[in-house]
Q: What sequence folds into this?
């Protein structure tokens, strides 16, 4: 089994790191990457083979597209060489499997995946969608690849990727935004930058660990922190009065709408 990545950036690096720790061997993996320094880094770090985009590359059973969405079309159209029929996996945001299939005159052995950046520390969340023609073996292989960088969920409809992108794809940025705000709040309370950083990061890390290990849901855990007439109650009331919950729901809806829009834009042949 040979697996080729087209694009050897951040997300490809995360996947390769996870896969080599979870039973894939480095000599099964090849990366096509234009940046020579990045190619050297991938060889040194993971022991994979590499090539530049215009150089010949090994025949592959699986090709994983990990370039920017706007770079995808030419890369996809060059992917089926010498009559091979590999499983194609795309992690490019916004580009629909049906669009990739159209670029390849109806080729249907395609899986689309939306991972997220915590994949870099093997704590990713990936949503997977397979075209109906993709068989059980290809689905199982795709799942094995992405469980090497975290958890996975299968989506029945491709349109669900827009909602998933808005929650788990973009979601790490929402959490980092909250962490930035909590640090700013600590600075406003007079703490030094170092202490503000420690207080914010350890509070978020500890809360997530508690939530994951507890039988209580998030609402119950929140109530357990919130003493009647105490300090937390004041803060939560301030969140509620400023419609924070509704703002988060509306923000995710805006992200999902943008994902749908990108799907339209990137699917329009004239734009690429
Ligand atoms: N960053 C995120 O949170 C997420 C990103 N994605 C998707 O993952 C994909 C990759 O993202 P990153 O790894 O963050 O980007 P990146 O910029 O780190 O990696 C892209 C790589 O592709 C290479 N490249 C450019 N043209 C090429 C070509 N013609 N052939 C081969 N390689 C080429 C670049 O040199 C670069 O190393 C994007 O499509 C993005 O939408 C998906 C989920 C989450
Ligand atoms: O912001 C974006 O468009 C991509 C998709 C999910 C995370 N980053």
A:
């Amino acid at each position: 089994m040979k697996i080729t990545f087209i694009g050897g950036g951040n997300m490809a690096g995360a996947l390769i790191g996870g896969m080599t720790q979870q039973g894939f061997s480095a000599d099964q993996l090849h990366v096509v990457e234009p940046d020579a320094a990045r190619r050297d880094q991938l060889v040194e770090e993971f022991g994979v083979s590499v090539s530049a985009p215009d150089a010949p590359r090994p025949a592959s059973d699986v090709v994983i597209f990990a370039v920017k969405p706007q770079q995808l079309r030419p890369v996809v159209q060059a992917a089926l060489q010498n009559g091979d029929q590999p499983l194609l996996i795309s992690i490019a945001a916004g580009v629909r499997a049906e669009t990739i299939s159209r670029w390849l005159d109806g080729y249907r052995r395609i899986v689309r995946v939306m991972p997220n950046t915590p994949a870099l520390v093997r704590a990713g969340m990936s949503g997977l969608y397979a075209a109906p023609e993709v068989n059980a073996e290809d689905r199982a292989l795709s799942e094995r690849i992405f469980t090497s960088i975290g958890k996975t969920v299968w989506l029945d409809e491709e349109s669900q990727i827009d909602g998933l992108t808005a929650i788990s794809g973009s979601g790490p940025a929402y959490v980092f935004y909250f962490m930035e705000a909590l640090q700013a709040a600590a600075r406003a309370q007079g703490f030094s930058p170092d202490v503000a950083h420690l207080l914010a990061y350890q509070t978020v890390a500890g809360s997530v660990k508690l939530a994951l290990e507890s039988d209580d849901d998030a609402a119950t855990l929140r109530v357990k922190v919130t003493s009647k007439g105490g300090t937390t109650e004041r803060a939560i009331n301030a969140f509620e009065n400023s419609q924070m919950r509704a703002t988060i729901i509306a923000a995710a809806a805006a992200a999902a709408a943008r994902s749908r829009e990108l799907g339209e834009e990137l699917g329009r042949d004239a734009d690429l």
User: Anything to note?
Assistant: DSSP finds eleven helices and eight strands in the chain. The beta strands are 3-6, 29-32, 49-51, 62-65, 87-90, 110-114, 124-130, 150-154.
